Each structure stands twice: as C-alpha cells, then as structure tokens.
Amino acid sequence: MWFLDQTLPTIEENLALDEALLNEVEGGRLAPLVRIWELPRYAVVLGASGRLHEDVLIERCREDDVPIARRSSGGGTVVIGSGARNFTVILARDSYPGLDAVDFAQRFILTRLAESLQSLGQPVEVHGSGDLTLGRRKIAGSAQRRLKHHFFVHATVLYNFAVDRISRYLRSPRRQPGYREGRSHDEFVTNLDLPPAVLDEAIRAAWDAEVCSMPGELIPDAQIKELVETKFGLPDWVSRL
C-alpha cells in the first residue's frame, strides 16, 4: 500500500486527484493507497448533497476571497486550510470483512487512525457517523465515495486550525450528531495537539503504508485536468443544490 504526500495548487485539483486516484485503483492501474494533503489557504467544501445557500455564508466567503467547492463524496460542509490535514484511504471492498457496508467501512477507517493516535497518548475516539473526537469535541469529520470494487474514505484532521473560521463561513448544520448536543462550531470543534510530521506518521503507520519516493508517477494529470474542466471546476457543479 502506497503512502502519497501530494498537495496540488487549487481545491478543485485536490478534489479531482482523490477521485482520479480512486478511478485508477478501480481500474487496476494503481495499488490501494493513503494520501495526505493540506491546502495553504482557506476553502469551503460542500458534500455531494450539500445545499450551498443553506450551508454556506456566501457573502463572507466572497469578502475574504475564500473559494467554495463541492466534492463527489457525501458528508457535511467543511472549512479547510492551513492547520487542517486531509487524508484519503482507498481500499478494495473485499480487502477486509464487512467493508461492503458503508457505515462499517467508515468506522473501520477512522478506528485504525484513532488506535494509531491512541498509541501516541492521544485519547481519540470515534463518534457519530464518521467523526474523530477528543473529549467529545470534534477534531475530524469524514466522507466516503464507493465504486463497484473499491472505495475511499477521506477526512480532515484539525491540528493547528483557526476554528473561528468555521463559524465565519458556515451556518450551523441542519443535521447534527446527537453527541453535539446543540453546541456552536466554536464550542464543538477543537484541534489535535500534535506536530504535522507526527500526525502524518500516525496516518501512515495506521496502514503500514510505504512512502512513495516518486509521487509524480502516481498522479494521473490528464484525468485531473478533465475532472476539473468537466466537474469540479464548473460553477454549475458547485451550485447544483
């Protein structure tokens, strides 16, 4: 299993890369892998069924020149940027028992990382349908996309993120896990106190993945370009709901 540390320049390209890598693994052209990336600027990312005007404070995003994008996986709307590490795990649906079930697969991926972080003395737990928490405060949310034979779960782990940016750009979500108990973004979300290099190693170790020394060989540039031009980069894709 490969471990790929690769951030592309724009949010749209990074979303396209996750989808392109899943397509490549599904087509047998790549082995399953783990990818990490971190965008240096803020961006808002809707889930596939997220509602732009209900979820996002659009005018504030425009004022601050914060791009709004939409991914192809489910889950809620998030704010990412510096201090928020994104990771993607791509697996075969038959690689472990139970992965054909969406809920089990989500929890399986998150539990592996939680156990890796627990080994470093971080009391991380899995809560809700796909969150990692510290003391019942959220440090990571996740989403999933499935093809016939493979799937990915991708998530964002906050380790040094300006949490107040969430309430600046997002409304309170319509659907909330029970453990949130009506808390505001600022009361509900917190950071994992780990240096990024230590967090990266915990993610890699959770899967015993081999670091890719030539990441460019794994990047399907033409497919990324096509996905940006025909999907992720289109205003109609972002505003479709």
What does this structure look like?
With 241 residues, the chain is of the alpha/beta class. It has a single domain (2-234), classed as BirA Bifunctional Protein, domain 2, CATH 3.30.930.10. It is built from nine helices and eleven strands. The strands form two sheets. An eight-stranded mixed beta sheet has the order 7-8-9-10-6-2-1-11, sandwiched between helices. A three-stranded mixed beta sheet has the order 4-3-5. Helix 1 packs across helix 8 (221-232) and helix 4 (102-118) crosses helix 7. The relative contact order is 0.21. The mean pLDDT is 96.
Provide keyphrases for this structure:
single chain; 241 residues; alpha/beta; BirA Bifunctional Protein, domain 2; 3-stranded mixed β-sheet; 11 strands; 34% helix
Short note summarizing the structure:
By secondary structure, the protein is of the alpha/beta class. The protein is 34% helix and 24% strand.
Per DSSP, what share of the residues sits in E-state strands of 2 or more residues?
Answer: 15-25%
Q: Class by helix and strand content?
A: alpha/beta
In CATH, what is the class? Alpha Beta
Spatial shape: globular
Computed Rg: 17 Å
Give the helix tally: 9
CATH superfamily heading: Bira Bifunctional Protein, Domain 2
At CATH level 3, the topology is BirA Bifunctional Protein, domain 2
What can be said about the biggest beta sheet?
8 strands, mixed
**End-to-end span in angstroms?**
36 Å
Contiguous runs where pLDDT drops below 50 for at least 5 residues: none
- Annotation, overall tally of beta strands: 11
Give the SSE string: EHEEHHEEEHEEEEHHHEHH
CATH-level-2 architecture = 2-Layer Sandwich
Q: Helical content, roughly?
A: 25-40%
Overall average residue pLDDT: 96
Q: What's the structural domain tally?
A: 1
Strand order of the largest sheet: 7-8-9-10-6-2-1-11
